[in-house]
Amino acid sequence: MHGVFGLVLSAVRARRAQVLTLLVLTALATALAAAGPWYGLAAGRHAAATDVTSAPAGQRTLSVRRQVAVEGDPKGALDTLAGTARGVLPVRDTTPTLGATQAMSVSRNGIGTSMPVAFRDGLCGHVRLDGACPAAAGDAALSRNAAQQLGLAVGDRLTVSAGPGTEPVRLRITARYEIRDPYGAYWSNPLFLADEDGLDPVFTPLATFTDPQLGNPTLVYDVDVPEALIRGDGGFRLHDVLRAAEQELVRQQIRLVDPTAHILDTIARDRGGIERGVAVALIQVLLLAWFAIGLAARYTGRDRHPDLALLKLRGNGRLGMLRLTLGQHLIPMAGGLVIGVPVGLLAARWLAGPVAGPDVADAAVQSAGAVGAVLAGALLVLTAVEAAVLRQPVAALLRRVPPGRRDWRAGVVDLALLAVAVAGIYQARYGGPDSGLGLMAPALVALAVALLAARALAGLADRAGAVALRRGRLRFGLTAVQVSRQPGTDRVFALVVVAVAMFATAAGGWAGTRTANAVRAGAELGATRVLSVQAANRTALLHAVRQADPGGRHAMAAVVEAGAGPPILAVDSGRLAAVARWRPEYGPAGTLADALAAARPPAPLPAVTGSRLVLRAVNDTPVPMLVTAVLRNQASGATVPVTLGPVPRGEHTVAAAVTGCTPAPGCRFLRWELSAPAAGGRPGPPPDSGSVTVRSLAQQNPPADLLGPRQLADIARWRSGTAARSLDLTAAGGRLTMAIEPNLTGPDVPGNQAYAVGAPLPMPLVLAGPPPAAWRFTDPALYPSGDGYAPVRVAGTASALPVVGAAGMLVDLEATAGIAADTDLGGTFQVWLATDAPQSIVDALTANGLTVTADETAAARADRLAAQSPSVSRRFALLAAIVALLLAAATVAVAAAVDRDAQLGRLRALRLQGLPAPVARTTAYAGLAAMLAAGLLGGVLAAIAAHPLGRSSVPPFTDDWRVIPAPSALGGVALGAAAAVALVVLALAGGLAVRPLLRRLRDRSGDRDGR
Question: Is the pLDDT of residue 397 over 70?
Fold first, then answer.
């Protein structure tokens, strides 16, 4: 045994170039094999973490609910629910949030409006309070919006009831609240938010629920699910555990609301996509590595043929000689293993991060299996190559000139590979690119091109070389003959074509995925940077942004109504083109602004800046009337109702004080409200008939006419509601008459509001996708305006719009604020910032009263998208393609190095026969250069062909987002860059391999021959 080992070591020392080649090839293959599993697990873990943190808080919060009669002990009932939930749910280390809520209603303008009465554990730490935190039974915190809608202040009493005929519940308002973290888990439960048609809940201590009218609340136990449980670390299956918990809770008549299904599905699809992408790239390169190792063994085996012939003459058996030759391969393979595995692990950590926890053992086992597969496959290939050599007779082994033609077996192998390639292309085109062989369709297209081109190249070079030599064109002729007659050139050529095509395809896919991430991030945000802010209302938002950026070049106010059908994006349209990241799919950026300008709405009414209003009106109803002028502060958006009167029957002049309009920019007139005095002097429903005519409205301190004959007589300035019994308006003779429509159908409440037109009607908008279904039966209309809806018209269409996607509407924010008057339209308030917006703009926004609750950039969102499976798979595919290119380069180098002595002998013989030295030197490298150039061109063409034939494309996102068409998987820039890199790598490998031949040829020929 020692003798065999000594022979192996002697052979290894004697053939260092061959050993180095096999070491490099093995190191590359084992590095990728070791990196694949570690990369997949680390990237899958990172993708899961990104999916969890990117998901809305509501999708990570479990809610246990039970409606129960508390029987005067709400705390005991809530503690019982908490104990049950804590014992059943798998989340035990996270502090839950307890709550209780009961549906109630409040009277607003004589109409009942829903307003839940709620308790929420730790409320005062999650809101900004204007007043004292509710502490005793009967204390309550009312939202700023609800307080504005109801006209209540701190210290007032709020009366709510469960329904007609029930005992009311009277609450003492100790504070007005504003939510601090609207996107946090605390506010993710919709039970503690306003419903579509109601007001924000009023919050009170739990002791208030001892009132019998609040004795049947819905008790709530909310808890955040830790990220580790959602990710499924250690094989934990949250879905199965929650299903078992749900069944247990149902048996106790308790409901579990589990919103985690969407996140779990996203994580599963991300991990599956990453595993599939890594496996496909790994398999392709490993097959290529085995081919390269076999080709290298075939080339380097020529130097071993004399030794094998001598061993045969001495009577050695095939098994012993096979053991001896394989021993020469095992040593460099072991060296490649030692180098490749740590390099691969470091590369995986650099690209995807570390693997932690129980995944370490799984990654180690999978990497060991992949590396073992590489080595086992390489040994099988080497065994097959050496066994074929050992079958040759001694005479064939001693022959220095290799056979000139390939045997029939090579043709059969080519046909089999072509059949596999055709099957893969067919499956990709008709069975889907993500099924079976369709996953490797681009590589199979490259293989088919490589095999066909190799055949064509050999035949073309053979014929062209013969013709060139007969005509005396020695450089071209000898180069062509070298390409056609050199054994194995076609295989090296095919390897180069496949490697270049894989590299170009992977580079194009990686670049396309990066572009797709950037496009989606910009389309979802709408601008380079978007701030989510809190403001009292849309008017306050507009005022703050315009004050912070008077020029309109850096910031734009926007409101997103994601819950509308379809979603609505309201923007300050005059700033849209300067601030937004606009795309051609959105249509012209100025469509909305131009439509608003063309509508020519009436000039705004004069601003109210005085401390007192004076009304001259004619009351033609049977009772005294209260005429309320509802104003809105142009800076804060606060509603300022000024009740004038009562106005007795006939014509009278009445006055009332105004508070909240004196500072600039003052207040804007919104609407008139007619009412009759009720008990306690509060406004009540108007009578069933009669009219009130406004003759003039003026202010004092400073004095100014606000509404004169010209404004009052212009019917274009006024509109009534659109409910069944709205006011009839008549504008003529310098006055505005508001007539109460008689009740002809039933005991409903008559309309009592007349609005000043604050926006062009119908309001223009840009529509993406189909119009709402309701428009098929009624005139297009949006937004509640008092007691009805505002008419709209489609000014333009687009295939997509920012933020709202392929189905939504783009409207003007100021127009919506004017139409809605003091109605709260809801939505997410945002400030879009241009790319060059300075930080001082953000400081100015906060100085003008906005509270920034979230700050997101398109670049950060693109980075989160880059953690999903399409981007992660493309990165590993690019790494695998780089390894494939290096494998091809190493094979090219060994092919050139092995043939170096034989080619030197041929060129020296030709020099003795008169071949000029420059021609000899050109011939020394031109054959290899021509083969590499043809391989590079073939690889580029194969990559181009793979796009239509193999359905090569940028994969969709994990959630199948397709609002904006995906970019090409092989753009011109990416293709050119990939070709340039491949050219440099192959040229460097070929140049280093040919350089010793040129040096030896030059040393022998001398400078005199080259002149």
Answer: no
What residue has token string 């003795």? 912
Task: Examine the pLDDT at 843 and tell me if it is beyond 50.
Answer: yes
Number of CB atoms found within 10 A of residue 134's CB: 27
Confidence of residue 410 (pLDDT cuts 50, 70, 90): low
Tell me whether residue 408 is exposed, middle or buried, using C-beta atoms within 10 angstroms of its C-beta: 0 to 12, 13 to 18, 19 or more.
exposed
- For residue 386, the number of C-alpha atoms closer than 13 Å in the C-beta half-sphere is 25
How big is the CA angle at 873 (ends 869 and 875), to the nearest 5 degrees?
120
Region label for 974, one of left (φ > 0), alpha (ψ between -120 and 50) or beta (otherwise)? alpha
User: Concatenated DSSP letters for 384-444?
Assistant: HHHHHHHTS-HHHHH-SSPPSS--HHHHHHHHHHHHHHHHHHHHHHHS-TTSGGGGGHHHH
Q: Which residues are registered as beta bridge partners of 654?
A: 615
Round to whole Å and give the CA distance between 178 and 146: 11
Residues 6+ apart with CB under 8 A from 35: 344, 345, 347, 348, 351, 367, 879
Q: Residue 784: what pLDDT? A: 55
Question: Strand pairing of 568-571 and 808-812?
Answer: parallel
Which residues does 213 contact at the CB level (< 8 Å), separation at least 6?
Answer: 161, 162, 166, 167, 168, 169
Tell me what the mean pLDDT of segment 356-365 comes to. 79
CA 547 – CA 570 distance, rounded (Å): 19
CA neighbor of 352 nearest in space, from 298, 274, 446, 415: 274
Hey, which bits of 180-295 come out as E strands?
202-203, 218-224, 255-257
Q: What percent of the chain has pLDDT over 90?
A: 33
**Res. 4 pLDDT band, cuts 50 70 90:** very low
124-133, 382-391, 493-502, 621-630: which range is least confident on average?
A: 382-391
- The Cα–Cα gap between 230 and 832 comes to 33
The two beta strands, 117-120 and 202-203, are: parallel
Q: Is the pTM here over 0.90, yes or no?
A: no
Report pLDDT for 279.
Answer: 87
Question: Hey, which residues does 852 pair with through a beta bridge?
Answer: 533
Q: How confident is the model at residue 387 (pLDDT cuts 50, 70, 90)?
A: low
Residue 298 neighbours by CB under 8 Å, 6+ apart: 385, 488
Whether 670 and 637 have beta carbons less than 8 Å apart is answered as no
Q: Is 535 exposed, middle or buried (0-12, 13-18, 19+ CB in 10 A)?
A: buried
Closest CA to 485 of 956, 899, 978, 911: 899
Helices (DSSP H) in 769-868: which residue ranges?
813-820, 839-847, 858-865
CA angle 87, 93, 99 (to 5 degrees): 70
3-state secondary structure of 457: helix
DSSP 128-151: EEEEPPP-STTEEEEEHHHHHHHT
Distances (CA, A) of 411 to 108, 380, 454: 89, 21, 12
Asked if 949 and 423 count as a contact pair (C-beta separation under 8 A), the reply is: no
Residues 331, 337: Cα–Cα separation, whole Å: 10
pLDDT at 1: 44
| The residue to which tokens 């279904």 are assigned | 773
Mean pLDDT estimate for the chain: 81
Structure token pair of residue 884:
């494939």
End-to-end, the C-alpha distance of the chain in Å comes to 58
Q: Where are the alpha helices (DSSP H) in 899-916?
A: 900-912
Cis peptide leading into residue 762 (ω within 30°): yes
Cα angle 173-176-177, degrees, rounded to a multiple of 5: 130
Q: Which two tokens stand for residue 467?
A: 């013709």
Domain locations in the chain as residue ranges: 1-59+261-400, 60-260, 441-519+860-1011, 536-601+761-849, 612-756
- The tokens describing 455, both together, are 């055949």
